Amino acid sequence: MYFMNLTNLFSLFLLSFVVLVRGKPLSLSPRDVYVPPVLYPHTGTVWKINNHHNVTWDNSDPPVNITNKIGRIMLRKGSLTTPLILADNFDILLGRIEVMVPWVLEGSDYQVVLFGDSGNFSPLFTITS
Ligand SMILES: *[C@@H]1O[C@H](CO)[C@@H](O)[C@H](O)[C@H]1NC(C)=O
Ligand SMILES: *[C@@H]1O[C@H](CO)[C@@H](O)[C@H](O)[C@H]1NC(C)=O
């Protein structure tokens, strides 16, 4: 009985160690962190629901060794990033990816977030129906 408890305690210890390690941000050298700025959509852009658009970003100056080359684009409204994924699993070096505007409330406080190593917000733009 005592032995079992000790084993459980040890597993718990191991688990919390894993969680700690995973939760800890990796220390990266700055040149490897690639956060290209979003060029489109920009201020004044109006997207209509269900239309297709190319989100574009500046890929002219990537570091030699990019830590994470896989990109993801999410939609943000107001001060919240929504759970909506517009594009995923693409090469961050492409500089462009086509997305479909999802069926969302109209608003002029939308942004896209481009994730690679980190997240980069576009300027605010509008989605209409
Ligand atoms: C996105 O860019 C690709 C490549 O230039 C082009 O073929 C496609 O038509 C563009 N899509 C839109 C919605 O403009
Ligand atoms: C990039 O990675 C390669 C292979 O790991 C390494 O030899 C090289 O020094 C790295 N270059 C930079 C600029 O970090």
Written account of the structure:
The protein has 129 residues and is of the alpha+beta class. It has a single domain (38-128), classed as Immunoglobulin-like, CATH 2.60.40. Helix content is 17%, strand content 41%. It contains one helix and nine strands, in the order H-E-E-E-E-E-E-E-E-E. The strands form two sheets. Strands 2, 4, 5, 7, 8 and 9 form a six-stranded mixed β-sheet that branches. Strand 7 and strand 8 form a beta hairpin. The protein is elongated. Residues 17-27 have low confidence and may be disordered. The protein binds 2-acetamido-2-deoxy-beta-D-glucopyranose (NAG) (2 copies). One 2-acetamido-2-deoxy-beta-D-glucopyranose is lined by residues 52-54, 96, 98. The site of one 2-acetamido-2-deoxy-beta-D-glucopyranose has 2 residues, from loops. Residues 1-23 form the signal peptide. Keywords: Signal.
List the topology elements:
Elements: H1 2-23, E1 38-40, E2 46-48, E3 52-57, E4 70-77, E5 80-91, E6 96-100, E7 107-115, E8 119-121, E9 125-128
Parallel strand pairs: 2-9
Antiparallel strand pairs: 1-3, 3-6, 4-5, 4-7, 7-8, 7-9
One 2-acetamido-2-deoxy-beta-D-glucopyranose binds at residues 64-65.
